[in-house]
Specification:
Number of helices: 13
CATH topology of the largest domain: Beta-galactosidase, Chain A, domain 5
CATH architecture of the largest domain: Distorted Sandwich
Distance between the termini: 19 Å
Shape: elongated
Helix content: 25-40%
Strand content: 15-25%
Number of strands: 21
Length: 507
């Protein structure tokens, strides 16, 4: 194998190592709508007394010992949920997915969307077509909590209503609305989930995909944010609070978001309403995009995100034509190979030119075996005389790396592939090949490709390159089968092209 190919492989590995070891962490720490609206009855008025200052980040609402057997089973959208009495939080949320249902509540003791955790809520039996819970404070203030369904492009909402039936004014107090700690995920992701969970928020610049995703560390965050929440690879729990009625968000570890409502004074017989749109479910790009709130930005497409989104759009169109995500991946790989063929051709020509020079390079190595400086100078003179460029095959590969990395992140993080089968034993393109057939075949093709390239002059380099197919095979063993299918198809097409053009390249 020549130095050209060695440099190409070495740079490829270096780019991947640098990317996933540094750039992913650095750059992916990862119009007015429902998020900015709340409803208030005329009888409510903001408190004239100074609002209590937000508690420090470590002073989060304490967990209470819960009796989850007292939780009510309800349907929230398509999910089967359980609402437990303390704080009327969601203690279980079984979200539907292609392979069954997945539990999104990571810690049922506190649950999701807890409010007034010191109060014991009871479902309001008078409401027949809704999910409403009620509780009363010792001072007489009545708290009603309702989970409103979403529809179409409208997000579901949590509505809190405070009613003052007493003869004196009452302050609502700075109550909290929480998300977390943590977020559940599918079984195959649970081992990695602790590392993948994060608190993220989207800044409000512009509409749609505009704005900046911020990965938030524990503390107080002034924002403002279009939305804030917890996510992992495939799921998102996000709130869209109104800054008019909520203090800056507080975050903690394990991943947790605490929103503190600004205290209001409620006159006798009056009421006040807070409303917070939310999203709780899978990070499917298509249905997140329909809300127009930038929730799809939670999907981690990596540093080349705009390329990744285009890749996913192309995959979705191809899936519409083929009806199968596996064939869509194959089709996209073939299209990319055709589009990138000019670069592939230059790379193969450079490799062919270097192969022709191997006999002369070998002679120079024998002649200057004891003088590396003269060997280097003579080799460069040979390249110049023959018009060969040792980096000629490396540059086209580097230019392709943004596409490869973007597609890698797209296939790795796309919920659309979860539970999507291809053929035979591949029942889930987001999971590893259960029999390791695809990575083994991929490794064999890489080994065949290495044999078709000119050998490296340095025996140490030959040994390194001999083990590269084996290294890649083991590296891809636990990768999602959709990723391996892409790389296998890419290697197969490259091998076929190299064999088909062999005579022309060696002429």
């Amino acid at each position: 194998m020549d130095r050209n190919l060695l440099l190409a492989v070495a740079l490829s590995v270096a780019v991947y190592a640098a990317w996933f070891g540094f750039f992913e962490q650095k750059f992916n720490p990862p119009p007015d709508g429902p998020a900015g609206r709340t409803a208030a009855l005329p009888s409510a008025a903001p408190s004239t007394a100074p609002a209590a200052a937000p508690a420090p980040p470590d002073a989060l609402p304490s967990r209470v010992k819960l009796d989850l057997s007292a939780a009510d089973t309800v349907a929230i959208g398509d999910a089967a949920a359980k609402i437990q009495p303390h704080g009327a939080s969601i203690a279980s949320f079984l979200s539907p997915e292609p392979l069954g249902r997945v539990e999104l509540v990571h810690d049922p003791r506190e649950g999701l969307f807890s409010t007034f955790p010191e109060l014991v809520f009871k479902r309001d039996a008078s409401v027949k077509n809704g999910i409403v819970y009620a509780a009363a404070r010792p001072d007489g203030l009545r708290i009603s909590k309702e989970f409103l369904p979403g529809a179409g492009t409208v997000l579901p909402r949590v509505r809190i209503v405070a009613v003052n039936p007493t003869g004196r004014s009452l302050d609502s107090g700075a109550w909290t609305l929480t998300v977390g700690p943590g977020l559940g995920t599918i079984d195959t992701e649970k081992e990695e989930n602790e590392k993948l969970q994060r608190v993220i928020a989207l800044t409000p610049e512009g509409a749609g995909l505009n704005g900046r995703i911020e990965s938030l560390k524990p503390g107080v965050h002034s924002g403002p944010y279009r939305w804030i929440g917890i996510d992992n690879r495939y799921f998102l729990a996000a709130l869209l609070p109104s800054p008019e009625h909520f203090e800056p968000a507080r975050t903690a570890t394990p991943p947790r978001v605490v929103l503190t409502a600004k205290s209001v004074s409620i006159r006798p017989g009056g009421a006040f309403t807070w409303e917070a749109p939310y999203y709780l479910g899978a990070k499917g790009h298509t249905w997140l995009s329909r809300y127009g709130m930038g929730l799809e930005r939670s999907i981690d497409f990596g540093f080349f995100a705009w390329i990744g989104r285009k890749m996913l759009e192309a995959l979705e169109r191809l899936h519409g034509l083929t009806g199968n995500w596996g064939w869509a991946i194959l089709s996209l790989t073939l299209i990319l190979q055709v589009a990138l063929f000019p670069l592939t051709w230059k790379s193969l020509r450079a490799a062919g030119a270097m192969k022709k020079l191997q006999p002369e390079i070998a002679k120079l190595q024998q002649k200057y075996a004891d003088d590396s400086q003269k060997l280097s100078a003579a080799t460069m003179e040979l390249y110049k005389a023959k018009g060969a460029n040792p980096l000629g095959g490396c540059l086209p590969m580097i230019l392709q790396m943004p596409i490869f990395i973007a597609l890698f992140n797209t296939l790795r993080n796309s919920w659309e592939l979860h539970g999507a089968g291809w053929i035979f034993w591949i029942r889930d393109l987001s999971a590893k090949d259960p029999y390791y057939v695809l990575p083994i075949v991929m490794g064999a093709l890489m080994f065949l490709q290495s044999k078709m390239n000119p050998p490296a002059g340095d025996p140490a380099q030959q040994k390194i390159m001999m083990f590269m197919p084996l290294i890649f095979t083991f590296m891809f063993m636990n990768f999602p089968s959709g990723l391996v299918l892409y790389w296998l198809t890419n290697s197969l097409v490259s091998t076929v092209v190299q064999i088909a053009l062999k005579d022309r390249l060696e002429a």
